[in-house]
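Give me the fold.
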Amino acid sequence: GARVGERAVELAPIMTLAMAESRRRFELQPMMGHLELGVKELAAAPAPVEGDLFRTIQLFPGVETRNDYSAGLNVRGGESDQNLILLDGYPIYNPFHLGGLLGTFIDPMVGKVELLTGAAPVRYGERLSSVLDVQSADENRHGLHGAGDVSLLAATATVGSAFDGGGSWMIGGRHTYADVIANAVKRNSLPYGFSDMQAYLTRPVFGNAVLSVSAYDGSDGTSFNQTTGGLDISWGNRVLGATLAGVIPGRTVVLGVLPTDSVSLVQRISLTTFDAAAIVATAGFDLRSSVRDIRASGAATLFTRSFDQSVGYEIAAQHLRYSMQSPITSITNFLPRMSLDQSLTPVSGWYDALWRATPRLMLDGGVRVDAVNAAGWTGLSPRISIKYFLTKDLALIGATGSYAQWLHSLAQEDAPIQPLEFWIASGKALPVSRSWQSSLGVEAWTSATRHFRIEAFYKRYSNLIEVNAAADSSVGAAPFLELGGTSYGADALIRQIDNGRFGGWIAYSYAVSDRVTPAGEHFAPGHDRRHELNAVGTWKYGRYRVSARLGMATGTPYTPIVGEFTRERYGPLGNGFAPDNGGSATQYLAGPLNSARLPFAHRLDVSITRIGAGDRVQVSPYLSIANVYAANNPAMYFYDYSQGKNAGGTRVPDPVRLSVGNLPFLPTIGVHIAY
């Protein structure tokens, strides 16, 4: 008989492309100002000093950057303390190292990041401007796997594994050795260090439920020789939280009256602490700040085909301490010389409903109720957003709503560098800050991985808390100002989600901010940057990955010095005036507050990575260059009075303006190791 032969047949390759999470949200939720970034997007931008998710987020629309020395966020005209920063849903208060130069999050421990620059749903409270939720990575591979990074600044290592019965664990750490390198060149030249430790565990429990536990500990410290009147500074964050989440599938009737297709339940508990201290023992200077935040929150969501309802609660016990003892009057101009010990138990509840009225129309509305006992305040925060699909790929969206904030940072918004945040709470004499925000935009998808959006916004503020730099505490002047104001503008984003060969985005932001004092004086806050454009791209060529970022921005405001005079003191013995002998006879004269602006800034950053190709261990060295063409971009100005001229023994006002530049041409090398 005939024999049937066997022959291998090569089939055409098949590529499966899952729907991007951003596209899924576009179809299912009427959210504005929402960005979801995965690991690829977070690694897309060149790292000037060290990989940092805050630096990447600053390159998206609606987020203004102060300068190269701050990783903090000013979102759509808001102050830096108006951002709710979460780690797996748990609050963290000062997630920065090196006085704001770097964020504290360990990059390999980050799975994805969600950023809301406007129209946050009612489940989020406590802040006026934005929400940043950093979600830990899940290790879905069995066996021991990990990664390591070595740069000129720090070393990072992570390790983790998937459990056989489901779930996973992951542990990571980072520690700087920049002080060791600097001190080897010159003794005690950089007495500073920081470290981070983070752990994340998930495990299925009770059938369909999942328990996740997150822990983080970060610390910074610097110490100069106390015998010469040096300075000891330390600060740190700690977070410990657990979440139990589950879904009850199948049709059921809740409370006997609410038919649902399924029910989602979430319960969280957490402890967050923040401690900061700055001490100069030989000068009698002692500055301390601490936050203790214990909270529990929960939510239940009832799903149906066209109508989803959510209800939730949050209760916290917050204890804040702030104190400063100092004879140094120049410091008390920026931070109040006082002591505060505040305890409060804010209680919040919220209800949200998402109605898919027609295939083209979605409405999401809700209300949040917050009660802050220490301030004797209870407030409602209604919010609503509407999306209308002109086509399946093009939609109009609008949103409006109210927001409240009762925790305030004493960071000076007009200071170009903000090394630390010191937190206080609203009370009987310090009101809760409020804002009302409205947005209108359009979003379109031109392919499965490419989309663009344009959004305009308007925000009105009341009772913003700022340190009164002109207050004289010796005569009982009020240490704080309550500001009003507005912010308005528009931002645009064109984004190509990484398709394996190219990924990137072009982001443009326009914002105008105005603040008004109780006396009716208007001024632009220090973060008021009118125009900013960032173009970011990542290309892959074989085993090489090339990333580039071109940034351009108009200048932020500053207060110019317009002259100086010699402060004199009356001498009764000689019946005349003479220069003050206190050592500071020359006094500068400032112009109108923030009436001048820094010049236009621009910069190109580039990085090249050779991707490792080992079967078990991949070693990927990289070179990153900040400010490739060495652009001179001033970050701030200061004035030198020692170069003044003399004419006939009389000092002529002629201070010399000098500048502190942003990052110069700065190459960085490092290596990433994965196994």
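The mean pLDDT is 85.
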